[in-house]
Amino acid sequence: MDPWASGHHLKFETAALTHPGHVRRFNEDSIFTDGERGIWVVADGMGGHRDGNVASAMVTDAARGIGKGASLMAFAEAFRRDIEAVNAALLARSQGRPDQIVGSTVAALLTHDGNYCCLWAGDSRCYLVREGRIEQLSHDHTEVQELVDRGIISQDEAASWPRRNVITRAVGAVDDFQLEHATGVVRSGDCFVLCSDGLTGHVKDEEILARSSGLSANQASHDLLELALARGGKDNISIVVVNVVDKGATTVVMR
Q1: Is pLDDT at 48 greater than 80 in this prediction?
Q2: pTM
């Protein structure tokens, strides 16, 4: 039997921060965490549209009402159904008019019996830090990422591409909305980082790795926020850090 299969020996240390940044007047991001149920969510209301904060709050409110489910698959399907319902409600609100679209990205982490499922739409991200390495579990739904995937521009060029913030999928933007997902096994020592693009617009993956390895979730989240703000804080910034530890282990925090 897989020693990680049950997950009963694991616990989650969580820290969550959201900040309007230095430029935006309002914070259109929304976050929700519930370590007991194993659900963490970051939602980024679509900037430049009316009521982006309403859209992101509808996403996190939906997450708040989801039952645990008998399995990870059932948990993920319940989340998917409720987010699809939010998508329909937001589309009805805009009445099919592109200039009236109210939307939100979403990046969610669900855990059940020692396994995880990351679900997302848009450019909010979910990372896994494990054994000194960082992996982006999500894959950006953006125009610039599509160009990178097709080999038209390089990853380095993407960082300064003029339309890098154009999102190709979001809750409330399209009728045939679908969440993408990735799954895996949770291990003691793992660190998951969920964030809006207000963080990744200023902070590189290797810097997220350096500031989340061996630190408490609280320290890691504050260090990441301070770095993004020090570099301009041009957008709303949301960060959720989830450290996975053994229930009986002593946690050693190193800087």
Answers
A1: no
A2: 0.90
